[in-house]
Amino acid sequence: MKEDTLWVEQAWKDTFEKVKTTSQEMTVSFPSMTENGIYSDTHKPWAWVVGFWPGLLWLLYEKQGYQPFKDIAIDRENIMDGPLDEFINIHHDVGFMWQLTSVKQYELFGNEQSRIRALRAASHLASRFNINGRFLTAWNHNDVNNADPKGLSIIDSMMNLPILYWAAEQLDAPRFKMLAMAHADTVIQEFIREDGSVRHMVEFDYLSGKVKQYHGGQGYNEDSAWSRGASWAIHGFSMSYQYTQEIRYLETAMKTADFFIDNLTDDHIPHWDFRAPRTESTPRDTSAGACAASGLLLLSDLVTDIEKKDKYQTAAINILKSLYENYGTYHDHTQQGILVGGTFNCPQGLGINCSLIYGDYYFVEGLYKLKTKLG
Ligand code: GLY
């Protein structure tokens, strides 16, 4: 790495110290987003965010060996057996939930119970495949807009595919991988625009499999470019390429990455939607920056072209450094999150300029990758 690297060590150290403190203070089991600096609980053990806090603790534990982080991560994974057994409320985000927890614990310690949990989660995701439209159905209900949940798929799904690829390898069962690739191909077709911008929600006719309507979802409108959706695509397609070696996934990751990077402003942190009307006070979304940065580091490892490699790594480092320097809460003890400046859902006015647990997670994941590269 050419760039100066001292800040990476400092950021990692500061993050470890911050989380040591917040993990003791935190009264909630599954932090989601902050209100006045304090993390609120999801109150729903099946919510898509529940894996991020234990996942973040695993990353820090792995490098620091700090036992309380391991204890909390295992405790939260155990609680997540509730929704897995209950089954009825589970949706497509099982990758976010069990990849960062159960797959991680299995990789670290070979815990067979964790492996079975993740395999059950993958089986559930496979069961959400719509054979006519060749897409994974996102939700069981839809309170967001008037789209029929039976035919609704969303870009976030790209982050859930790795648990299918992983299950295919674990069980020597290519059917999981084939479903993941069929979905990824539909996403290329229907979600990724020619210019590399990304749609959030596509509603299909669940019987014919044909597209009925595009929805803006958490973006500004159906023609806009929600930045976290873009980050899900960059990161998700990079992981699909990592597991399959199919060049079309690498090309899609690069196309979405190029759009993302081209639309950043001087401080390297994306606005919440690249096409929302912009003023001085338009919110940014640090979680989109963090997720994209971690994905760009992976993409940089995967591409062979030296210029592209350098471009993606430099962009990732610029984002992470700016997050650390401009959005980190290290000296602000009133904030439980690591990063401020996250935007959960701008159209609904929810979670603007707060900490988001997935922003914190991907920031730590990005630092973890940089620290690993440095040795
Ligand atoms: N997966 C929902 C979100 O990105 O806010």
From TrEMBL:
MF-aspect GO terms = chondroitin hydrolase activity
Whether Nucleus counts among this entry's keywords is: no
Look up the domain of life of the source: Bacteria
Q: Look up the record and give one Gene Ontology term from the biological process aspect.
A: polysaccharide catabolic process
Keyword GTP-binding attributed:
no
Write out the entry's keywords from A to Z.
Hydrolase
The record's annotation in InterPro entries points to:
6-hairpin_glycosidase_sf, 6hp_glycosidase-like_sf, UG_Glycosaminoglycan_Hydrolase
Hey, which family's this protein in? Belongs to the glycosyl hydrolase 88 family.
Which PANTHER family does the protein's record reference?
Answer: HYDROLASE, PUTATIVE (AFU_ORTHOLOGUE AFUA_7G05090)-RELATED
Q: What is this protein called?
A: Glycoside hydrolase
